[in-house]
């Protein structure tokens, strides 16, 4: 028996070591690709401006939409965009990619803000070396970043709260799924949502859980939440993959009458809204964020000043809009 335990322990260690090694390997590949995209070309095309966009998660639909908007506008402005990001949400790898980007000295860096003192120091280091940094999706306001372009996340949270109050029926027990406890955008959305819900009579947020920016994570957290709080009748998701996961979790546990609200415009969310299984979604405009960011950087390269925050509005996606009723305010 002891030999078997020893063998199982050894296998577990090998698996863990293999995972860590694979993450390091993939991270190295990304960094090498970043070097390849910037270094040789920059020597060949000295007049071309290079901008690095570091995403939170490489193939997340939100970030791919932002990449598209930024790339389209970059083409119009004569700018070369280099897009990078972790395969899965990984703050450590985001920091590593930022470090490497600074070392390669692009003409500007676009990054998501992160609640991490070391990350802020890196932003300030980049600016001190003459590399302008703008934040997208989530801000880093205490850093020396040039500007923030993106959603007013606290206002979007309030918008969600007002939507839930308008549609409210039955008891006021609410569950919340956030994408990440580390993302400042999620914290601000939750703050805005709380400010509306706590001021309403009979409404109560009974549980807040993190999906770790994962459809599967949102489904699991929803199942666990409903198992513990059977009287929840509304669940709100604050990251793009949450609504579909919440819907899966609600169906898995077999609880009827749960009103689901989500964030962003994913196909799975649209389908849920069309079927009446998801009430509505607060939609950001990542393409517009990417395009606006690149247009502002182009203006900056030409001598214009950028300061503060540039908010891109959100809108409500519901059945009325899907059926041609227009965008809700």
UniProtKB/TrEMBL annotation:
First-listed, main subcellular location of the protein, grouped into a coarse class: other
InterPro entries listed in its UniProt record: Bact_Solute-Bind_Prot2, Peripla_BP_I, SBP_2_dom
Gene3D superfamilies found in the cross-reference section: 3.40.50.2300
Subcellular location: Cell envelope
UniProt-listed SUPFAM superfamilies: Periplasmic binding protein-like I
Domain (Periplasmic binding protein) ranges: 52-304
Span of the signal peptide: none
Family to which this protein belongs: Belongs to the bacterial solute-binding protein 2 family.
Name this protein carries in UniProt: Periplasmic binding protein domain-containing protein
Protein source organism: Paenibacillus motobuensis
